């Protein structure tokens, strides 16, 4: 692993779990999630997240959001994250890492002409008792930034480097 990634190495691996969501424009819901953080020896982590709607019994109903991107650790515990969504939104987050806590806010949001109105986000990630806890607040559809989704994920797979 590239030595610059040491502050965020705790993210490496495959994580699965469940969370809750809501927003003024939608009904509250439960969702399942898988996040995979990887690396290939370069100074960034790869990132993929998939979510799906859960029914009251915890069964998968249908796919929800997907995002993919790259996490770059900078000097002085600063962090840059580039995320892309298949719905026509690209985000650049900036933030910092303090021990096993990461706080990010959008620096840039770009949208295609067909994308929904989305203007910014704030994300918190933390390792708590071995689980990855995270929360996402967003500003969209004419609303100020507010809580949207949060989840608790358990590590279900160790990371195997993608290095040749």
UniProtKB/TrEMBL annotation:
- Gene3D superfamilies, per this entry? 2.40.128.20
User: Which catalysed reactions does the entry list for this protein?
Assistant: peroxynitrite = nitrate
Residue ranges annotated as motif GXWXGXG? 13-19
What is written in the cofactor note of this entry? Binds 1 heme b group per subunit, that coordinates a highly solvent-exposed Fe(III) atom.
Q: Which domain of life is it from?
A: Bacteria
Q: What does this protein need as cofactor?
A: heme b
Q: Which residues form the THAP4-like heme-binding domain?
A: 4-155
Q: What is its EC number?
A: 5.99.-.-
Keyword vocabulary terms for this entry: Heme, Iron, Isomerase, Metal-binding
- What pathway does this protein act in? Nitrogen metabolism
HAMAP family the UniProt entry points to = nitrobindin
Domains: entry comment: Forms a 10-stranded antiparallel beta-barrel structure able to accommodate a hydrophobic ligand in its interior. In fact, this fold hosts the heme group, which is located in a wide surface cleft.
**What does the function comment of this entry state?**
Heme-binding protein able to scavenge peroxynitrite and to protect free L-tyrosine against peroxynitrite-mediated nitration, by acting as a peroxynitrite isomerase that converts peroxynitrite to nitrate. Therefore, this protein likely plays a role in peroxynitrite sensing and in the detoxification of reactive nitrogen and oxygen species (RNS and ROS, respectively). Is able to bind nitric oxide (NO) in vitro, but may act as a sensor of peroxynitrite levels in vivo.
Q: Which family does it belong to?
A: Belongs to the nitrobindin family.
Name of this protein? Peroxynitrite isomerase
Q: Which organism is it from?
A: Planomonospora alba
């Amino acid at each position: 692993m590239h030595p610059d990634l040491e502050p965020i190495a705790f993210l490496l691996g495959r994580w699965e779990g469940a969370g809750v969501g809501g927003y003024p424009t939608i009904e509250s819901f439960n969702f399942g999630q898988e996040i995979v953080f990887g690396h290939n020896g370069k100074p960034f982590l790869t990132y993929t997240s998939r979510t799906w709607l859960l029914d009251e019994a915890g069964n998968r109903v249908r796919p929800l959001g997907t995002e993919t991107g790259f996490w770059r650790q900078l000097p002085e515990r600063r962090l840059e994250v580039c995320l892309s969504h298949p719905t026509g939104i690209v985000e650049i987050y900036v933030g910092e890492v303090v021990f096993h806590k990461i706080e990010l806010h959008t620096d840039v949001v770009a949208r295609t002409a067909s994308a929904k109105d989305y203007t910014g986000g704030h994300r918190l990630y933390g390792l708590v008792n071995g689980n990855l806890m995270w929360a996402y607040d967003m500003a969209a559809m004419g609303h100020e930034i507010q809580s949207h989704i949060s989840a608790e994920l358990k590590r279900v797979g160790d990371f195997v480097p993608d290095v040749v």
